[in-house]
Amino acid sequence: MNELAGKHIVLGLTGGVACYKAAELCRLLIKEGATVQVVMTEAAEQFITPVTLQALSGRTVYGSQWDAREPNNMPHINLSREADAIVIAPCSADFIARLVQGRADELLSLLCLARPIERVPLLLAPAMNREMWAHPATQRNLAQVAQDGAVVLGVGSGDQACGETGDGRMLEAEEITEELIAFFAPKHLAGHKVLVTAGPTFEAMDPVRGITNHSSGKMGFHIARAAREAGAEVTLVAGPVHLPTPRGVRRVDVQSARQMLAAVEQQAATATVFVATAAVADWRPAQASEQKIKKDGSGLAPTLAFTENPDILASVAQSDRARSGALYCVGFAAESHDLLAHATAKRARKGVPLLVGNIGPAAFGQDDNALLLVDAGGHRELPHASKRLLARQLVQEIAARLPSLPPRA
Ligand code: CTP
Q: 276 CB less than 6 Å from ligand 1?
């Protein structure tokens, strides 16, 4: 989606096996529209050649502060002044220690030190053996670089090149790209706690069967991601869907409407925004059989009785927190026809300030949609676009409707 269009990134590589992932990262950043200037330490060049990074970035790689290509012979000044962000991936334990000390005896640490600290953010994607990661010296250094203004992106956990298993793997290229996109997003929801429901629910008939629907959960997952990018602390209560959790979002998996209600009630006690995108099953089998229902040979199908599920959105919208204005509730309406009339009626029925309508069958499982926002002031259309873009627009629309937060103590 060209989400980094217009951004110029200095991508710094330091010594570590994870250098192989930096090649993919460089490619992804460029795919998202960024221009990338690669700078490598001598140690990084032991793991991957500048030729690879030059080919991927379309620019010659810098490795020395004595590079005669710069007319003023000051690559540390020139490269850092051009950058919208400096990303060090992989960032070795040694390089973190160098940053802590403010070392300047090779180009990459020199340009980090020389960067205009208010204007050029520094993001670090550490990569190292689990013992090195857990060492008090590394943890102390990480705390110090964070205090000095660097953004530490964290590490993954799992198998390491050394054969050990644990924390310290560099994040995947997709994850670092996602973090960088989030970093640049305007923080419309800073200080807010956003709760999102997404996906279908599954209502069991017996241990192997149940009723559900075609909701893919995509819209809710995109909203959770966009809210987190906008600076909110986000909890996503998800029905059974096959989607990766957006980075930085806390996910609670549930199956049935009643489980979803329980999870939502717990989170709604502290949330400031609730967005209900889940396609909750309206009914569930009145009695779920503990054993698989078998054919009895009579040729007759079993008769199932249904009972109505709790209305999660309506019940949260009637809570004291929502009624006092401490929790802003947003409902969704999946309709097949007469969208405006149904969405307007549903907004009143659910008792929510904002109701977002869409034509359900056209949107289920798709990557794009169109939304109709209905609030007390009237209605407004968010025209056909990707769910990703719509989610960002919706988050902005929600933020604009929120009462301002009380100043933090
Ligand atoms: N919703 C909910 N709990 C339910 C049913 C719906 O929280 N048991 C929420 C949905 O997440 C959505 C909104 O209510 O935000 C409207 O969902 P929708 O299925 O369109 O409406 P229903 O209330 O089921 O009305 P109907 O099926 O009659 O259109």
A: yes
Q: What mean pLDDT is predicted for residues 167-179?
A: 97
Residue type, 406: P
Show which of 165, 184, 203 is a domain's final residue.
184
**What pLDDT digit, counting tens, does each position of 17-68 carry?**
999 999 999 999 999 999 999 999 999 999 999 999 999 999 999 999 999 8
312 lines ligand 1 (CB under 6 A): yes
Measured CA distances, 84 to 59, 68, 399 (Å): 17, 24, 26
Asked whether residue 381 falls in the same domain as residue 309, the answer is yes
What pTM was estimated for this model as a whole?
0.93
Separation of CA 364 and ligand 1 centre (Å) = 15
Alpha helices, DSSP H, located in 148-185 = 173-184
Query: Encoding tokens for residue 81?
Result: 């002044």
CATH number of the domain at 166, please: 3.40.50.1950
Confidence tier at 74 by pLDDT (50, 70, 90): very high
- Indicate if ligand 1 lies below 6 Å from the C-beta of 331: yes
CA separation for the pair 44, 333 (Å, rounded): 52
Gap from CA of 280 to ligand 1 centroid (Å): 6
Active site residue 162: yes
78 close to 10: Cβ distance less than 8 angstroms: no
- Which helix (H) or strand (E) segment holds residue 165: the answer is strand 165-169
Q: Which range marks the domain in which residue 137 is found?
A: 8-184
Say if residue 257 is in the same domain as residue 372. Answer: yes
Determine if ligand 1 sits within 6 Å of the CB of residue 219. Answer: no
pLDDT, tens only, 23-37: 999 999 999 999 999
Coil vs helix vs strand at 234: strand
For residue 126, what are the β-bridge partners?
91
* 3-state secondary structure (DSSP) of residue 218: helix
C-alpha of 194 from chain center: 13
Question: In angstroms, what is the span from residue 51 Cα to ligand 1's centroid?
Answer: 56
Distance of CA 187 to the CA centre of its chain: 14
